[in-house]
Design brief:
By secondary structure, the protein is an alpha+beta fold. The protein is built from 12 helices and 12 strands. It has helices at residues 21-38, 51-81, 135-148, 196-203, 250-254, 263-297, 305-323, 336-355, 362-373, 379-388, 390-412, 422-432, and strands at residues 2-7, 12-20, 91-98, 103-111, 125-130, 151-155, 164-173, 176-178, 184-189, 210-216, 230-244, 414-419. Strands 6, 7, 8, 9, 10 and 11 form a 6-stranded antiparallel sheet that branches. Helix 6 packs across helix 8 (336-355), helix 6 (263-297) crosses helix 12 (422-432) and helix 10 crosses helix 11. The longest helix has 35 residues, at 263-297. The radius of gyration is 32 Å and the shape is elongated.
Length: 434
């Protein structure tokens, strides 16, 4: 077998492969002789069918099968022999053709992973947040839990800050009406909805009375057809409810799974949850710090287009699913840039692991899965589910490997500590992860 490799564009390579005709013909003859022993053809005893008859009946089919098998095996061997790292499935560029010169020739296009130079970790400058969970953070979470259990009672007055308001509305945007028929229903907390125009309109309105207002909907509004749009809105306040927070009594504490109703135990569980959240946020920031630094050091790193397209399509699909709409292939282009960044950072993290012999730590994988499982009512079943689902397990393994890379880099890089509060770390992780 002879192989010629040509660079076409970027990370694409064209492989021109020549397979000896004699080798292929021998496989075809062997297959036909094997068939001659197996097939039953009227007029001939089993196993005694002449090879000429077998060839006439099955020759074309066998020829196609052997050529297909030969192309697959020779292409894989060519990739190995030429030390190529395919980023996707190779595709035939020209069909196999007998050149009449003792060989059959075909060509294939292979997109490969880029060669990445050795990263000088000691030269990397990274900042690391440092924070701890304080009693005030636990107090704040306790108040959040109380707000989640707010008791709402209907009142006969206009809405003020802190009230829960139930409304119904319809909106006209150009020639379109949302919804097509009837009304949409919505519940908001005054002062917390982020929709200032709507809250101002509600504050001036008595319950049960419909009014016409013009509103500019937020860009992040839950209905895509209204998101960021100016609309004529018919709005009715159905009810106004005033809230009162529950007492920190035994009943309240038991409602969070603390069997004996002890406040200290609830606070201890809250601390453990906040510390876990802080650890995850810190790891997220450190990963972003590392990838940002790596990307700046290699701004021109090429990445396989096929993987970028696949990642962009996945991102578009996830956004569509979150919005409750069908995926639209025309939206994929908008995600190419963030997908390129994500693929590039993933390759760099993987290369760091490869260059420095970092392997997935099975114990850390187990611990991470158990940490996830602890947030469910049946932890053992969740652990079993993760280990029984290769895709879920691979996601955790990838996350653990990235954490291991970050830990390893922190031991060698130039790291500057940033003193921060708990909430500052949480907010930074959320903002940078968007």
């Amino acid at each position: 077998m002879q192989v010629t490799v040509e660079s076409t564009s970027g990370l694409e390579r064209r492989l021109i492969v020549q397979i000896p005709s004699d080798e292929v013909n021998q496989k075809i003859d062997a297959r036909l002789r094997e068939l001659g022993k197996q097939v039953r053809i009227k007029g001939f005893r089993p196993g005694k069918v002449p090879i000429t008859v077998v060839k006439q009946r099955y020759g074309k089919q066998v020829h196609e099968e052997i050529i297909k098998d030969s192309v697959q095996s020779s292409l894989q061997q060519a990739i190995v022999d030429e030390n190529l790292r395919p980023a996707g499935t190779p595709r035939l560029d020209s069909l196999p053709e007998d050149k009449g010169e003792g060989y059959i020739e075909y060509s294939a296009i292979v997109e490969i992973f880029p060669e990445i130079e050795t990263v000088d970790v000691a030269a990397l400058k990274i900042s690391r947040p440092e924070a701890s969970v304080k009693e005030s953070d636990i107090d704040e979470m306790m108040e959040t839990l109380r707000k989640q259990r707010t008791n709402w009672e209907e009142v006969e007055r206009r809405a003020v800050a802190g009230d829960q308001v139930l409304i119904k509305y319809s909106a006209e945007v150009g020639d379109s009406r949302v919804p097509d028929e009837g009304t949409e229903r919505l519940a908001i907390i005054m002062g917390e909805s982020g929709f200032d125009g709507l809250e101002k309109a509600i504050a001036k309105q008595d319950a049960g009375k419909a009014v016409q207002v013009k509103l500019k909907f937020p860009d992040s509004y839950r209905l895509p057809q209204l998101s960021g749009q100016k609309a004529k809105v018919e709005l009715t306040v159905n009810s106004v409810r005033e809230g009162s927070l529950p007492e920190l009594d035994e009943e309240f504490i038991k409602s969070f799974g603390v069997a004996d109703g002890e406040l200290d135990k609830l606070r201890s569980e809250i601390r453990a949850n906040l510390e876990r959240e802080l650890g995850e946020a810190t790891n997220s920031i450190m990963k972003l710090e590392l990838t940002d630094t790596l990307l700046k050091s290699m701004p021109d790193l090429e990445v396989p287009d096929s993987i970028v397209r696949e990642e962009a399509a996945g991102m578009a699909a996830r956004i569509a699913q979150a919005q409750g709409v069908e995926p639209d292939s025309s939206q994929v282009e908008a995600f190419v840039e963030p997908a390129t960044r994500r693929v590039r950072s993933g390759l760099l993290m993987g290369e760091l692991a490869q260059q420095n012999g970092i392997r997935i730590d099975g114990a850390r994988v187990r611990k991470k899965i158990e940490t996830i499982a602890d947030t469910y009512e049946q932890p053992a079943e969740v652990v079993q589910m993760y280990y029984g689902n290769p895709q879920l397990l691979q996601q955790v393994e990838s996350a653990v490997l990235e954490e291991q890379v970050v830990d390893w880099v922190l031991e060698s890089a130039d790291v500057k500590v940033r003193e921060m509060d708990f909430q500052e770390v949480i907010n930074e992780a959320a903002n940078r992860g968007q």
